[in-house]
């Protein structure tokens, strides 16, 4: 298979790149750091790389002829920053997170969806955070809720082109992204385990991959509460 993965230089994307390469597939790993990308190629020679910033929308590189047509396009790159003071809303921070987590997805679809072969699969890495309104997640949660909505619509609209869509909703995964968090992160798993779960789900043709199971069950159960009740619980989470 030919697999293209964004956000391949770190965390979940790095483990997905190594995992698919070790399984013998041809991987196109995308990232912003050439040094980190070179390390991937050194580890697995069947990983080729594309170095660019996904928020520089006019500078996406062309995919080399031998990189396509793709069997799997995994749009995984993303970032998380919190809105610490909703009253003095930081619009620049909001824009930064919406840009990488949502707007860049639109540009990536424009650039590479035509490179996905008939019968291929698009994978969008969202987050379980989109299930619930979480304190300080105005930017991250909104971007991922938007992304999950986008994934569902694409699953409908791309069906007639024989392109399957999978959305991924991880709980907490230990990566540089979560290393920055100072709050408790229950049921956190490692990036390698997360990547294995995603690869297994993709191989089974799943349209929605959610993990870890117990954490997702908890989030889904809480999301069924009336919002007024969840709001009170969430307010208690943040009040001293
Ligand atoms: N970790 C979790 O608990 C968790 C939970 C739910 C969902 N997710 C989602 O999983 C995905 C991967 O996250 P992760 O935890 O593996 O985070 P990570 O270790 O921080 O990796 C993020 C990747 O995205 C790349 N990236 C960020 N901004 C970019 C930009 N402007 N242009 C190009 N590449 C960019 C990073 O590149 P650099 O190396 O250059 O920074 C890195 O390769 C994200 O979409 C995240 O929202 C993570």
TrEMBL record:
Transmembrane segments: none annotated. Keywords: Oxidoreductase. It comes from the Bacteria. One of its GO terms (cellular component) is membrane. Belongs to the short-chain dehydrogenases/reductases (SDR) family. Gene3D superfamilies: NAD(P)-binding Rossmann-like Domain (3.40.50.720). GO terms for molecular function: oxidoreductase activity. This is SDR family NAD(P)-dependent oxidoreductase. Coiled coil: none annotated. InterPro entries: NAD(P)-bd_dom_sf, Sc_DH/Rdtase_CS, SDR_fam.
């Amino acid at each position: 298979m030919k697999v293209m993965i964004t956000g391949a230089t770190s965390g979940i994307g790095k483990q997905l790149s190594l995992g698919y390469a070790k399984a013998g597939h041809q991987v196109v790993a995308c990232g912003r750091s050439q040094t980190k990308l070179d390390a991937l190629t050194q580890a697995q020679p069947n990983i080729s790389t594309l170095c660019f910033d996904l928020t520089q929308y006019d500078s996406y590189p062309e995919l080399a002829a031998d990189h396509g047509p793709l069997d799997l396009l995994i749009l995984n790159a993303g970032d998380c920053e919190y809105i610490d003071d909703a009253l003095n809303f930081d619009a620049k921070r909001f824009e930064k997170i919406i840009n990488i987590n949502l707007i860049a997805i639109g540009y990536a679809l424009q650039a590479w969806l035509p490179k996905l072969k008939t019968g291929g699969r698009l994978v969008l890495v969202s987050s379980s955070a989109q299930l619930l309104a979480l304190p300080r997640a105005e930017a991250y949660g909104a971007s991922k809720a938007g992304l999950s909505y986008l994934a569902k619509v694409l699953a409908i609209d791309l069906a007639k082109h024989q392109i399957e869509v999978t959305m991924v909703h991880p709980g907490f995964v230990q990566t540089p992204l979560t290393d920055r968090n100072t709050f408790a992160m229950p049921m956190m798993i490692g990036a390698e385990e997360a990547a294995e779960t995603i690869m297994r789900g993709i191989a089974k043709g799943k349209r929605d991959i959610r993990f870890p199971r117990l954490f997702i069950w908890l989030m889904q159960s809480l999301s069924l509460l009336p919002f007024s009740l969840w709001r009170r619980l969430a307010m208690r989470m943040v009040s001293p």
